[in-house]
What we know:
This is PRA1 family protein. The chain is mostly helical. The chain has one domain. It has helices at about 1-10, 15-20, 25-70. Helix 1 (about 1-10) packs antiparallel against helix 3 (about 25-70). The longest helix is centred in the middle third of the chain and has 46 residues, at about 25-70.
Amino acid sequence: MLTDFLTEAFDEDPDLEPVIPHFNRKHVDQMGAIIKAFNYYFFVLAAFVVLYTIKLAVAAHVCLMLLGWAFQE
């Protein structure tokens, strides 16, 4: 998607090419791969945060249940 957008911009306006002569499709593909890797990294990080939060909530619930059981009248 990013590759298509940038290559279409270069195709429509040939004056852009001399400004960035070394910027070709290979570089755009590399940038796309880097962006995908960061998206994957943040997705995995978010999943761990969610799972850790659930773990803490379950642990707190169990502690409260045990306290309620220990101090029942």
